[in-house]
Design brief:
- The chain is an alpha+beta fold.
- The chain is built from 16 helices and 23 strands.
- Strands 11, 12, 13, 14, 18, 19, 20 and 21 form an 8-stranded mixed beta sheet that branches.
- β15 and β16 form a beta hairpin.
- The two termini are about 35 Å apart.
Length: about 525
């Protein structure tokens, strides 16, 4: 779930204020805007689409989920699970069964109680759609009573609850009547009030929240794709939270430590130049490897990211426990790139400017996200690097929905600049990303390879952690050798929050956003 940025702040705020005042409930909708100082304002870098956790992950909506919905349990600052809807849980390793006891005083925003049937329903929708391979590790789900649910697994897994904690709990009884775009429903600390298309969503405090009404009166989410603009809005007091501030602003941190909380970290997501391996241009792994040799990824980190990043090492991610320690990033070697292309049948034309084969130039279209300034700079640099070896790249900007639709479980593209999650706690994700199953193509542009599929399935079936790690190490080496995409970099990013509010621990990870319910106006 990571992302985008840029310009004209006063006009933007005026337009948003005006656009929120045209609905029938005018006074109520306008109230949580900028008129009430106890409203937390949150800039998100991706469009806010449907707020349906069973369908939508790659959008600004995912940042709303932790405040609108509840979870079985939530990790604390040390990563230890703490009760949320679940007040107790027990795992029986003999029968591979988790028994989870729910608190009896939790209600959805429509006043229906949260029961074990809702947990069952959420597993059948959210978990099954978002992480089907993890869902397939479940043998039976049994609502034993309104407040007790039993989950029997197919194999021993002491960490199963940690893998599913971020599954949002949906209301099962009223599902047919819930419009997750115009009026989503959860049981979290804030309730949905209104939205202005993909630009803005307003939440208000839930007075009936089972852990007590939040001290905040509400939260307003603004879609702001320009990170520099978000930084300017922060400095002007026009927003309270901004994500992934641009690298050139990092040096200003010390000057603003009294005014803002900062969270500085390396993303577990990596940016990848993903190729459509079904396209004749990219069928040959050596051609894909050649393109990687031509791109100076260290230059991207040093100059475009201003040193705030790390060169990606492969599909597992930097510092992943499943990354093979002997695997190193592929070096930038343009001469080797040319050699590999020539070995694949490509030759320079008469002017020594373009690679051609069978009368066709090597040229392709690269999709990038509209408004993403860092990605725009990276795509321009990729154009230059590949132009140096005779390959032409046409860059096309598209919306998030269009980009996702073209490459996710689809091959309606040639190349795309996107982000994938590294593997740190949930190796089942690799099956979704790099293998096809049940007639569904893989999420990574339909990439498939029989040996990758075999090794990953063996890893998922392994009971011994050491054996599982061994298989995952093998998969790491194999996928990297096949180069389904050029693994570019991990960003080192900076999230910022105004100290207009007091908060014990600030982070914009899923669990950190959930903890924003504890924020309170700072005393003068």
């Amino acid at each position: 779930m990571k992302i985008l940025m840029r310009r004209f702040l006063m006009i933007f705020l005026s337009v948003v204020c005006l656009s929120s005042c045209g609905s029938p409930d005018r006074e109520e909708q306008a109230a949580p805007h900028a008129f009430n100082e106890n409203i937390l304002r949150f800039d998100v870098a991706a469009p806010i689409t449907s707020i349906d956790p069973s369908e939508i992950r790659a959008s600004g909506s995912s940042l709303i989920y932790p405040l609108l919905f509840s979870y079985l349990c939530v990790p604390d600052e040390n990563g230890e699970l703490q009760p949320d809807l679940a007040q107790n849980w027990f795992y029986d390793p003999e029968t591979f069964t988790w028994t989870i006891e729910l608190r009896p005083d939790a209600f959805f925003h429509n006043r229906l109680p949260v029961t074990s049937t809702d947990i069952f329903y959420s597993m059948e929708t959210v978990l099954k759609n978002v992480c089907p391979n993890l869902f397939e590790s479940i043998a039976h789900i049994i609502p034993a009573s309104d407040t007790v649910i039993k989950i029997r697994l197919l194999k021993n897994d002491h960490s199963f609850l940690k893998k599913i904690w971020d599954m949002e709990i949906l209301c099962s009884l009223d599902k047919a009547n819930i419009d997750y775009y115009h009026f989503p429903l959860g049981s979290g600390p804030f309730r949905f009030q209104s939205r202005d298309g993909e630009k803005q969503v307003i939440l208000t405090a839930n007075p009936d929240y089972y852990k007590g009404r939040p001290l905040l009166d509400g939260v307003v989410f603004y879609y702001q794709p320009d990170k520099e603009k978000s930084w300017a809005r922060l400095l002007a007091g026009e927003t309270d939270i901004a994500q992934e501030i641009s690298p050139k602003n990092y040096e200003m941190i010390k000057s603003y430590e009294d005014a803002f909380y900062f969270d500085h970290y390396t993303l577990e997501y990596y940016t990848i130049l993903l190729y459509n391996t079904h396209d004749p241009l990219f069928v040959d792994p050596n051609v894909r490897r050649a393109l990687t040799h031509a791109i100076d990824r260290q230059y991207i980190v040093d100059h475009i990211l201003k040193g705030y990043g790390a060169v990606a090492v492969g599909p597992m991610g930097v510092d992943s426990p499943f990354h093979h320690q002997d695997v190193q990033p592929i070096l930038c070697e343009p001469e080797e790139a040319v050699r590999l292309l020539k070995a694949a049948g490509w030759r320079y034309d008469g002017n020594n400017r373009h690679m051609v084969k069978n009368g066709r130039r090597f040229e392709f279209t690269l999709l990038i996200l509209k408004g993403a300034q860092v990605e725009k700079a990276v795509s321009r640099f990729i154009q230059l690097c590949l132009s140096d070896i005779g390959v032409t790249v046409r860059v096309r900007t598209v919306s998030m929905d269009e980009m996702y639709e073209k490459y996710n479980r689809n091959s309606a593209f040639q190349a795309v600049l996107t982000e994938f999650a590294g593997v740190y706690t949930r190796p089942e994700y690799l099956l979704e990303l790099w293998t096809s199953a049940d007639s569904k193509p893989s999420e990574a542009g339909g990439f498939e390879h029989p040996e990758v599929t075999r090794i990953l399935n063996m890893a998922m079936q392994a009971h011994d952690p050491a054996l599982k790690k061994q298989y995952l190490n093998q998969a790491d080496v194999l996928i990297l050798s096949l180069q389904p995409g050029t693994f570019l970099f991990h960003k080192t990013v900076l999230d910022v929050m105004s100290k207009r509010f007091d908060l014990t621990h600030f982070s914009l990870f899923h669990e950190g956003i959930h903890r924003l319910r504890h924020a309170m106006l700072a005393r003068d």
